[in-house]
Amino acid sequence: RVVCTTERSGVEMGRTDDSPRQSIALGAHKTKSKEFYDIVRHIGECKNKSDEDSIMRREVMMLRTVLTGPKLEKAKLKEYLIRLMYVEMLGHDAAFGYIHAVKATNESDVSLKRVGYLATSAFLDENHELIILIVNTVQQDLKSDNYLVVCAALTTICRLVNEETIPAVLPQVTELLNHPQMHVRKKAVMALHKFHLKSPSSVSHLHGKFRQMLCDKDPSVMSAALCALHDLTISDPGPQKNLVPSFVSILKQVVEHRLPKSYDYHRVPAPFIQIRLLKILAALGAADQKAATEMYSVLSAVLKKGDNQSSIGNAIVYECVRTAASIYPSPVLLEHCAGVVSRFVKSSNNNLKYAGLDALSCIVNINPNYATEHQMAVVDCLTDPDESLRKKTLDLLYRMTKSNNVEVIVDKMMDFLRDATDHHLREETATRIGELAERYAPSTQWFINTMNVLFEVGGDVVKQSTAHNLMALIAEGSGEDANDATLRRSAVAAYLGLTSKPRIPRVLFEVILWVVGEYGTLSGQSPQALMDTLCTAVEAQPEGDAVQAQAMTACAKLAVAGGGQLSEKATKLVNRNLNSRSIDRQQRAYEITALLRENPALVAAALPQDASCEDLEVNPALPALDAYVNKAFAEGASAYLQPSERSTGLREAGGGGLSHEVAGSLRFDAYDAPAPDRGIAATPAAPSGGMRLSSTGGTWGEPAGRSAPPTTAPRFEPPQAPEDDRTQLASALFSGVGAPPPPQVPRAPPPPAPRSDMDLLMGLDAPTPTAAAPPPSPPTPRRRRRRRRR
Q: Rounded to whole angstroms, how far apart are CA atoms 40 and 272?
């Protein structure tokens, strides 16, 4: 504002100065017409979208008429382009004016050229067809003596560059790194950074230029180089390791106020440069003791200088704590960080609490003892009404979980899951509950009960792999028959009690059907009663239709245990699915009906009890098919050839002179021309004046009254709470933090190739298990395997 006022005063006094800033001020003053101010004022006074749209429609009609007219005043073109940008920004089509913005970039007037570049950057994208028209203009402007023109061209390059246009401007942009103007050097570094983001291979030979610009005498150029080096360091820290002393030196100079005052923000020296440097040091010091040792002193200085209780100072302290937790740890520095974080956690501001919990979770990964000091503050955050703050508190507790506090933490996560409404948040919490229960379960019974509650509370977000892990645990057990029988009996009793609930999640319903089908008889009820219970639940539950296939298989398993007879309700369920539109359900129904008609020994072999974890030894020769194969050979079938044994040529078929390609082969040579049919005799042309049909030696079909003689066709081969409660909760949450965990109950992770006998008929699992990634540090499993030869 001061510049424009000064220049305008110079004009009024009669001074004429041809400097670029003078021409910009004059151009800006000339383009401000009354219509322009009216448009801006009317748009600001609009009270609804319809009023704004009506103004913009009138504006579009006026601009279209003016810009397509035979006489277009260049003096007003700048204003028209600005008004076009208003039209475009407010959601209306201004494509008719794009070409005028591109033409304006060729104008000699600096002010109009800069507006043209600005409008072009706003209108076009990197894939627009008009980009090719400005490449030559940009190349010429990059060589201009006016640094304002060069800066405008570089700004446009950063916005509209693509992989095809990078080679056209790369040499000139590289030369501008040595330009005497700092603004040009800074924008040249930014342009090279943009080239790296678009096409890393195009500037891979120029990474050394970023290092050179890091030593530029102007801090703005150095800051631009830091942004590029940050991306290079994140992608590959190795080549940048030797720059650690340089980064540490720059950060030290920044902290000591050696940069100009113009870089201060709320009395904090260049805070955004500090944050960028801290992120770079975090990447370079990870698992590198030598590099981290050089950073300790400057990080301590940053913590001291940044802890001024201002918002930007808190941001620097937070980033410094994350850096200290990322590099090779220093106990002294971590102790300093823990003291600073305590102010965040104990603050009444929820934003600072959130940042403090996040920073504390980073420190806890290194040493959990730092969290014990803040245990009461963490407990208070668990009951905070702010959902995001409770979520961050659970993240901290998730990182602190051990075998001695897993029950309390899982209970708190379960309470959070009940209240959470966001789908992704519920899914993440349910996944974490499953992981903690699998890794730190104090007993198998506790694990099963926790999974049941998880299925009830968050059945809509629980993954199928979690249900499969539960079924695998029940099936494999601990290896002791008495304990395993007690476990399965209690599981069956719990699941039979759940069938009376009004709504059961599908994943839990599938587990119930599998467990009752496998071990239902352990409850003491008759198989017919169990079948009736399952069928009643299928009819009553909203998810019943989706699990009818699993219910039929469960009833078939129970029928084997009851002598091979289905109950009345189970029979109705199977008969109803004989005509089902679902191929899966229909095929299961037919197979169950046919299988139960066989002798009991065959049915028991096909649906064995408690055999879901047995390894089946399959003979790859399949001797059971020998009779079928011999019969096929006797009828003239050809032997099967492996793909590697099949010839790509043509195989002659028996005596007829005909040939065909072997199944699976491709012909790359030209086919023969079709030969004339020998069965039809060629007849001379009919004389003019009529058509003459003569008899032929061969006919299609036989004349009436004469039977066709038997012919032998050539044979072709077929193709192939209160204070006391808070204290107790804190002691339960933080008990044993930092101490070695007690011995864990052996857990059995899912087998590599699970097989559920519930779906033996169809070869499908119920529910279909998915491969679940094992927890990071699972206890050593103990499997119970039995081999059974089939």
A: 35
